[in-house]
# Entry
Amino acid sequence: MTEAVAAASGEFTIGGDLTVRRLGYGTMQLTGDGVWGDPRDPDEAVRVLRRAVELGVNFIDTADAYGPFTADLLLKKALHPYADDLVIATKAGFARTGPGGWEPIGRPAYLRQQVELSLRHLGLERIDLLQLHRIDPEVPLADQIGELATLQQEGKIRHIGLSQVSIAQIEEAAGTAPIVSVQNLYNLSQRDDEDLVEYAEKNGLGFIPWFPLATGELAKAGGPLAKIAESHHASPSQLALAWLLKRSPVMLPIPGTSSVAHVEDNIDAAKVELTQEEFDQLTAAVG
Ligand SMILES: NC(=O)c1ccc[n+]([C@@H]2O[C@H](COP(=O)([O-])OP(=O)(O)OC[C@H]3O[C@@H](n4cnc5c(N)ncnc54)[C@H](OP(=O)(O)O)[C@@H]3O)[C@@H](O)[C@H]2O)c1
# Structure
């Protein structure tokens, strides 16, 4: 039975036609150590994905690189055939050189191969949102975005997004094809990209903060939010996510977890509404 808890986080429309609930889920914790290979408990990974959707999540962030392909195959196993309103955002362009190893490769033939493989592994005919995982400094950006635009014209990609970029890079990429979202490191304790959040809001781009829980630092017992959380009758993780949701209407947090208990805790953050005073208190207390 669906309990649409995530609906309380509100909605955002990506690229003018893809409406999602703002509080989503990210699949990077569903692999082995170093984001490599199978997770310790693949059955729990399947349960996590199904529980997220049961709780109303309809925006899931993944990448070819997670495993590689482990997370995508788990997604397909857990949720295919997908609900009509489920939006899977994936990425390409960050090759894996081993556990913990990552290397940007933006050559058009490689990007095409990874998009084709993602379609197959995810069991999709079209990818709703394809994010260039990293810009490859060795390849002209117009060639990288140009290949994604060609895949878009072929009907294999619906929208194009970017990951870990500057405003100048967004503007340069937008000279080749429309850019609808940006995914950068951002959370309550890591706010270097405030200007990018403002830019995304002003230009109607979705802002997908990666490491929304600072890789768990903000969620843990004894962490910087633990004391404040007690007085709010919320968990630390819920406060970190509620802060992000209040920060901007274009904010789409995608907390990652390998456990059903944590996915339930995180999605309940949709119901935590901070007053402006509480938001300011958290902003001042952490950072
Ligand atoms: N674009 C990029 O370059 C990029 C880079 C990194 C990540 N991402 C995306 O961003 C998503 C989120 O990042 P992330 O998963 O690495 O980091 P995160 O969401 O900031 O934190 C995940 C960590 O927090 C723990 N955690 C989650 N919920 C918790 C809870 N309620 N209580 C206590 N601990 C909790 C998890 O452990 P448990 O598994 O034990 O719950 C895990 O160790 C990824 O899944 C991925 O989709 C993108």
